[in-house]
Design goal:
By secondary structure, the protein is mostly helical. The chain has helices at 2-16, 28-39, 46-55, 60-65, 71-75, 83-87, 89-110, 115-139, 141-154, 163-191, 218-235, 240-261, 267-292, 297-338, 340-391, 395-411. The longest helix is centred in the last third of the chain and has 52 residues, at 340-391. The chain crosses the membrane at residues 87-109, 166-190, 217-237, 243-261, 273-291, 303-324.
Length: 412
C-alpha cells in the first residue's frame, strides 16, 4: 500500500492543475476529473447517497445560494460552497478515523478494569494514535484544505446565515487551522529527531533521513507546496493569468529543489518524482498556450490532446513503476518460500565467511604476539650480557690500570 500512497501523492499536484480557471477542450477535463476522484480516494460514490442525504436537510431557499464557485471547480468534484457537501468520501473517512480514535480513548479508560480492553488499547494505540492519523492527514490533505478554503472564501459574512451554514463555516475554520498547525507540528517533530520513532516514521518514510538534511523535511515541504497551490487555485479563481504565473514559479522551484536535493533513498523514486515535476511544468505551459489561443479552435484541440497525453503518460509511468516494484517484492517472497535451501546456504556462507574472518584475525593476533615475545626475549638476553660484561672486566684491562697507578705514584 505504501507504493500506492506514494504514487497518489506524486500525481496529486499534476491532477490538481485541472482546477485552473481556463476551459480545457475535448475530453481532457473529464479524464482529469476521473483521475482526481481516484487520487483523492473519492471512491465511495458519495454523490449517489451522501449528497442526497445532506441535501434533504437543506431548505429550498438555501439551495439557491449553495451553488459551485465556478465551472472549473465543479468539474473536479467541488459542486458546492459548503464543506460537508464538498468533502465526499473524505467525510466518511474522517468520521471513521474520529470514531476509531474515540474508541481507542474509551479502551484506555477501561484498560485497568478489563484485560480485553487493555489488549485492544495496545493494538489500536500502536496503529491509530499517530501513524494512522498522520497518514490520513497526508493522504486527505488536499480535499480537506480545498473544501474548507472554499467554504471560508464563500461565506466570510455568516452572522445572518442559517445555523447549518454557520456550522459548516465554523467546522471549515477548525479544519483549516488544524491542517496548517499540523505542518508546523510535523516540522517540530522532525527537527527534534523524534521522526525516527515508529509512531512518527511516516513523516520520513522513504527519504534520506540518515543524513539529517533537507531530505528529512521533504514531507513538510510537500504539504507546504500543496497549501500554496490550494491558496492560488481557490483564492485567485477570477484571475487565471496570475494562477498560471504563480503555479509555474512554484513548479519550477519544486523541480529544481527535487533535482538538487534528491530526497529519496531510492534512485527510482527520485527519478519518478523528478519526472512528475517536469510533467506538471509541461502541463502548465500547455495551459498557458490554451489561454493565449482562445480564437484558434484547431490549436486549442491539439493543446487539449497534449494535456491528455501528459496526464496519461504520467499515469502510465507511475503505474508501471508500482507494478514492477510489486512484482519484484512478490518474486522475492515466492523465491524465499520455494527455495529455502538457497536461503540456508546463503546464511551458511555468511557464517563461514564471518568465522573465516574471525579466525584470520585471531591468527594474525597470535603471530603479532609471537613476534613481540621473541623481540622481548632477545632484548632481555642482550641486557644480561651487558650487565655481565660490566661486572666481569677482562684481566688485561685490570693489569693496565694497575700499571697506570704505579706510574702515577712514581711521578708523584
Amino acid at each position: 500500500m505504501n507504493l500506492i500512497w506514494s504514487m497518489m501523492n506524486d500525481l496529486s499536484f499534476l491532477i490538481s492543475l485541472g482546477l485552473v480557471s481556463i476551459p480545457i477542450p475535448g475530453i481532457a477535463s473529464p479524464i482529469q476529473s476521473l483521475l482526481s476522484t481516484i487520487i483523492y480516494m473519492d471512491v465511495l460514490l458519495t454523490d449517489e447517497w451522501l449528497s442526497a442525504l445532506l441535501e434533504n436537510s437543506i431548505k429550498p431557499s438555501e439551495m439557491e445560494d449553495d451553488s459551485p464557485v465556478n465551472l472549473f471547480l465543479e468539474s473536479q468534484g467541488f459542486k458546492s460552497k459548503l464543506l460537508l457537501q464538498n468533502l465526499g468520501s473524505t467525510l466518511v473517512f474522517l468520521l471513521i478515523q474520529i470514531f476509531l480514535l474515540l474508541y481507542t480513548g474509551m479502551m484506555w479508560l477501561l484498560r485497568s478494569a478489563s484485560f480485553l480492553a487493555e489488549k485492544q488499547y495496545q493494538f489500536l494505540s500502536a496503529r491509530l494514535l499517530w501513524g494512522s492519523t498522520i497518514r490520513f492527514l497526508i493522504q486527505q490533505f488536499q480535499p480537506l484544505l480545498f473544501a474548507s478554503l472554499i467554504n471560508i472564501r464563500s461565506f466570510s459574512h455568516f452572522r445572518s446565515q442559517p445555523p447549518r451554514i454557520i456550522f459548516n463555516y465554523s467546522l471549515s475554520v477548525a479544519i483549516f487551522a488544524f491542517i496548517l498547525l499540523s505542518i508546523i507540528g510535523f516540522y517540530v517533530i522532525i527537527k527534534k529527531g523524534k521522526a525516527t520513532e515508529n509512531k512518527f516514521a511516516t513523516l520520513i518514510e522513504g527519504t534520506k533521513s540518515y543524513n539529517s538534511g533537507f531530505s528529512s523535511f521533504w514531507t513538510v515541504w510537500t504539504l507546504a507546496k500543496w497549501s500554496l497551490m490550494c491558496f492560488v487555485l481557490v483564492l485567485l479563481t477570477d484571475y487565471p493569468a496570475q494562477q498560471l504565473q504563480l503555479l509555474l514559479a512554484l513548479s519550477i522551484f519544486s523541480t529544481t529543489l527535487q533535482f538538487k536535493v534528491q530526497p529519496f533513498a531510492s534512485k527510482i523514486e527520485n527519478s519518478i518524482s523528478l519526472f512528475n515535476e517536469l510533467m506538471a511544468s509541461f502541463y502548465i505551459y500547455a495551459l498557458i498556450g490554451l489561454a493565449s489561443t482562445s480564437n484558434n479552435i484547431l490549436l486549442r484541440k491539439n493543446l487539449g490532446l497534449v494535456l491528455i497525453a501528459i496526464l496519461l503518460l504520467a499515469l502510465f509511468i507511475n503505474l508501471l513503476k508500482v507494478i514492477i516494484q510489486i512484482g519484484i517484492s512478490l518474486f522475492k517472497k515466492i523465491s524465499e518460500k520455494c527455495c529455502p535451501s538457497n536461503n540456508k546456504s546463503t546464511v551458511i556462507k555468511k557464517k563461514i565467511k564471518k568465522y573465516a574472518m574471525t579466525t584470520i584475525k585471531e591468527e594474525k593476533q597470535e603471530e603479532d604476539e609471537d613476534v613481540f615475545d621473541r623481540q622481548l626475549k632477545s632484548l632481555i638476553i642482550i641486557k644480561k650480557k651487558n650487565n655481565h660484561n660490566e661486572t666481569q672486566l677482562p684481566k688485561s684491562f685490570s693489569r693496565s690500570m694497575q700499571a697506570q697507578d704505579i706510574t702515577l705514584q712514581e711521578l708523584g
